[in-house]
Amino acid sequence: MAHRESSSGVGPPARTGPRRTSRAWLAVYVCLGIGIVVPLLVFLYDQEKPTFIGFPFYYWFQFLLIPIVSALTYTAFRISLRATERDRKAFGLPADERPQDRGKDD
Amino acid sequence: MGNVNGVELAIFLVFFVIVTAMGFLAARWQRGDSLDSLDEWGLGGRGFGTFITWFLLGGDLYTAYTFIAVPATLYAGSVVGFFAVPYTIVLYPIIFIFLPRFWSVSHRHGYVTPADFIRGRFDSKLLALAVAVTGILATMPYIALQLIGIQVVLEVMGIGGGSSSTFLAKDLPLFIAFAVLAAYTYASGLRAPALIAFVKDTLIYIVILVAVFYLPTQIGGWGHIFDVVSKSFTSFNTQNADAIGKGAASGKGLIPPSTAQWAYASLALGSALALFMYPHSLTGVLASKNRSVIRRNASLLPAYSFLLGLLALLGFAAIAAGVKVTNPQQAVPALFDKEFSSWFAGVAFAAIAIGALVPAAIMSIAASNLWTRNVYKTFIRPDATPKQEATQSKLVSLVVKFGALAFVLGLDVKQAINFQLLGGVWILQTFPALVFALYTRWFHRWALLIGWAVGMVYGTVAAYNVAAVGVPGSHFGGPLALVPFTQTKGYIALTAFVVNVLVAVVLTFVFRGLKVAEGVDATRASDYHADAGDPGVEDVLEGEPGTAPTAR
Fold it and tell me: Which residues contact A94 (CB under 8 A, 6 or more apart)?
């Protein structure tokens, strides 16, 4: 069973979903974008001073990035839960009875 | 090294034997009907819960790469090796974006490998074949890196490896590593690595915590370590100023020179984009319970990056502790040998060796599944029985390991990190066909195939032409090459990827213009958003191996 209409691509939810989800997804991608781009801007931290508990700046700054990016990703996750829920309707998928349980292991 | 330390070796062997026995017993654990079918052997019967799945994933991410290869680069004074930290930072936001879509479409259609998806999306057996073959090829150097991990541990314990010994004695540790790995996977499939993973991760956490928090205090603390290393590098640079000027040696430094900033960033980005193209990583992701689990875990997994960064710095700790080894890969094992009591060094060595063994087993199984599903069943014997498939898988898993062995014997093992980076050069070329296709069907299947081929050839040739520092005329000496039309060095994988995408874009316009058939897409928009519990979503993927993907 093939679906010819799908060959046009899926497109971001922004095009099909209500305006509020596109703003939510924008927030998600801003969070993730910061997390992806900042660690790659090596010139920002390619220096030895100031040191912190013996670690040159270069090292402690990158260690500091880990919890920051982790927090950004978690924020993106929380926002995405609600946005996904609204998008599901736009894609004709059944409504989720317990959206807050999404992403839990059990 | 030379002398064998009895206590150390005994402890090491006890742990190793326990784990080996577990591997064989694992074949009976939670067992299904029989190990003779591919699903049983290759996917552990697919009965793993989310917890075990992510445990296995963690096992893939923190391996000989973390323990041996990355610290070795720092020990050797090449601080660019610290790219492993930004690599594992940017990795998670990246997978957050595209992996949920892959989960959804795979669970709607019963796709088990990346090649399954590509065949369904583009209606192209050839493109699926290209992706499958790349996965198998790229896995080999990655397994090679794990073999080196086990090898150096055995060498530091004094088993073989001396430069004066005969060929057989010299490579004995390598052959032992190979034999153990082959025996495991052949006998018990994915169950062995799964059960071992618990022992392994427990051991590894103990060793890591001791190594990164206790060990540095014995050497005088991180401040002292950085001081000593800084002085050591400065004096090295002064003494070897001539050689460095001529390019016969590399300058050393605590931070990368400003000219190496793009090298650093491109290694991090290229590796992060590449990791989840590997068949073993994707198969692990598919086993998670629902699509949101991937996103939640993406925000939790970076905790591992912190330990990875501290482990990397053990390369510096080894310098400060006065460890002198000619093969930098031995730096961390030699540091443990020097600073830990014999029994704890034995525990640590067992942890490293098992930590290399498990992912190597998972990788070789994933690669052989790819062969059986997307090459053997598709092109050679479409009517193969489950038993024939399982036999194929086992044989190919062995072939993949021999391939890995060939990489170890054929390339320079002094910079083992290059093995992982070489795999990245190849596997990243499957990114456009796999990840772009999760969002759009705009690319033409033939354009993607030719883009892939150009990227593969460009990347391989560029990597072949890199001579190791101080060894003119040698090949595959490093992951970096000048980016065309610039004077800046970058990771070859990323450059080849850009070339690949450019070719694919241009040729898509061409093929569209020529109205070359685009094939029928078996997926539709909602497939990329479906979640567990939705109509048509399989909670556990049990698509009969090799069946053509069908929409339902």
Answer: A88, B534, B535
Domains identified in chain B, total number: 1
Q: Looking at the domain assignment, is residue B466 inside a domain?
A: yes
* Residues in chain B closer than 8 A to A10 (CB atoms): 439-440, 525, 528
Chain A residue with Cα closest to B293: A103
- The pTM of this model reads 0.86
Q: Which SS3 state, helix, strand or coil, does residue B490 take?
A: strand
- CB pair distance less than 8 Å for A66 and B305: yes
User: What ipTM does this complex have?
Assistant: 0.85
Instruction: Enumerate the domain spans of chain A.
Output: 18-93
Interface test with B, best of A5, A6, A55, A68 (most B CBs within 10 A): A6
Interval B512-536: pLDDT, tens = 988 888 888 888 777 888 777 676 7
Structure token digits, residue B339: 């600073």
In this structure, is residue B36 part of a structural domain? no
Taking CB atoms and an 8 Å limit, are B97 and A10 in contact across chains?
A: no
Looking at residue A67, its pLDDT comes to 92
Q: Is residue B445 part of a domain?
A: yes
Q: In the beta sheet, which residues pair with residue B491?
A: B480
Structural domain boundaries, residue B490: 431-516
Q: Do A54 and B523 touch (CB under 8 A)?
A: no
For residue B20, pLDDT over 70 is answered with no
**Yes or no, beta carbons of B254 and A46 under 8 Å apart:** no
Mark yes or no for CB contact B82/A62 under 8 Å: yes
Amino acid letter, residue B500 = N
pLDDT for res A96: 57
Alpha-carbon span B460 to B474, nearest angstrom:
14
Burial of B410 (0-12, 13-18, 19+ CB in 10 A): exposed
- Out of B97, B290, B524, the one facing A32 most closely (by C-beta) is B97
Q: Do the chains contact at A42 and B313, CB–CB below 8 Å?
A: no
DSSP state of B67: I
Tell me if B304 is assigned to some domain.
Answer: no
CA distances from A31 to A70, A72, B400 (A): 10, 5, 40
| DSSP 3-state of A52 | strand
- Percent above pLDDT 70 for chain B: 84
Question: In the structure encoding, which two tokens stand for residue B102, read together?
Answer: 């892959």
Question: What is the distance in angstroms between the Cα of B518 and the nearest Cα belonging to chain A?
Answer: 9
Q: pLDDT 10s per residue in chain A (106 long)?
A: 344 434 344 444 444 445 567 888 899 999 999 999 999 999 999 888 898 888 999 999 999 999 999 999 999 999 988 888 777 777 777 765 554 445 444 3
The answer to whether B381 and B121 have CB atoms below 8 angstroms apart is: no
Contacting residues of B for A92, CB less than 8 Å apart: 526
